[in-house]
Amino acid sequence: MTAPLLALHAVDHVFADGSVALRGCSLALGRGRRHALLGANGAGKTTVLQHLNGLLRPTAGRVLWDGQPVDYGRAGLAALRRRVGLVFQNPDRQLFSALVQEDVSFGPLNLGLDAATVRARVAAALDAVDMADHARRPVHHLSFGQKKRVCIAGVLAMEPDVLLLDEPMAGLDATMQADLALLLDRLAASGVTILLSTHDIDFAYGWADDIHLMAAGRCIASGPAAQLARQGDLLHAAGQRLPLALVLHAHLAAHGVLPAGTAPRSVEAVLDALHALPLAQPARTTT
């Protein structure tokens, strides 16, 4: 089995006020895979993301990059953050330049790249999030969803190996969510390892390769989405329910409408399976 690219090993984190955020938390990210982190509010999801990016340092335990402990010196953290990008839930925490292209160029400029390389990276990043036409727009004129896209572009311009996103779907309408999911799929297909936190078990079940469940500061379970999403006791412990696609498929299979076996990964796929069934012939009446 391939060693994880980024991992927490028995990490504790206690804030300055004495509140405990993580308790012996262990979690591993497989290379090039799509990961979803689920848990109730206060379970520690955001704290996990901030440890993986080096914004927080463990009180105990270790963060491992490519099998080696993270170096928390200035050079070590700079190297980690070049490889591991974090997109905050609230884009206003991440945007600070006047114009879109200025904000996206901030990271590459800090890497000391030449102007031509920075321009190329900014153009590619904005194109990836469909914001190329907004490069010269003031950031404060953007919608909430557009701001999120610019935040993602700013991280992509650093060309990271790992992309962390804290509740990326929050505040987006259905169309924006679908567009973002397509973008994340393209990034994963290009080899980027993705971890996003979410409260949406239906999205996680349909999108992720792996699911990680958190409760009370611990990762209580990790595994392939198709397997872990069936374990109702673990989902309940993490404040989640069974995915609707699983529930609907089980009900239809129990009534002989759909075959039992591997369940579709979304409600839409269940409906597609129903539409593919042959139409019942109307009963003939005799006179």
Would you give an account of this structure?
This protein is of the alpha/beta class and 287 residues long. It has two domains: 6-242, Rossmann fold (3-Layer(aba) Sandwich), CATH 3.40.50; 243-276, no CATH class. 38% of the residues lie in helices and 21% in strands. The protein has helices at residues 45-52, 74-83, 100-110, 115-128, 144-156, 174-189, 201-207, 225-228, 232-237, 244-254, 267-275; strands spanning 6-14, 20-29, 34-39, 60-65, 68-69, 84-87, 162-166, 193-198, 210-215, 218-224. A six-stranded mixed beta sheet has the order 6-7-8-3-9-10, with helices on both faces. Helix 3 crosses helix 4 (115-128). The model has no long low-confidence stretch (mean pLDDT 91).
Secondary-structure blueprint:
Blueprint: E1 6-14, E2 20-29, E3 34-39, H1 45-52, E4 60-65, E5 68-69, H2 74-83, E6 84-87, H3 100-110, H4 115-128, H5 144-156, E7 162-166, H6 174-189, E8 193-198, H7 201-207, E9 210-215, E10 218-224, H8 225-228, H9 232-237, H10 244-254, H11 267-275
Parallel strand pairs: 3-8, 3-9, 6-7, 7-8
Antiparallel strand pairs: 1-2, 1-4, 4-5, 9-10
- What is the helix content? 25-40%
- Averaged pLDDT, please? 91
- Any low-confidence stretches, pLDDT <50, length ≥5? none
What is the rounded distance between the termini?
Answer: 69 Å
> At the fourth CATH level, what is the homologous superfamily of the largest domain?
P-loop containing nucleotide triphosphate hydrolases
- Please indicate the percent range of residues in DSSP E strands (runs of 2 or more): 15-25%
Q: At CATH's second level, what is the architecture of the largest domain?
A: 3-Layer(aba) Sandwich
Specify the number of helices. 11
Taking all Cα atoms into account, the compactness measure Rg is 22 Å
CATH topology heading of the largest domain: Rossmann fold
The helix/strand series, from N terminus to C terminus, equals EEEHEEHEHHHEHEHEEHHHH
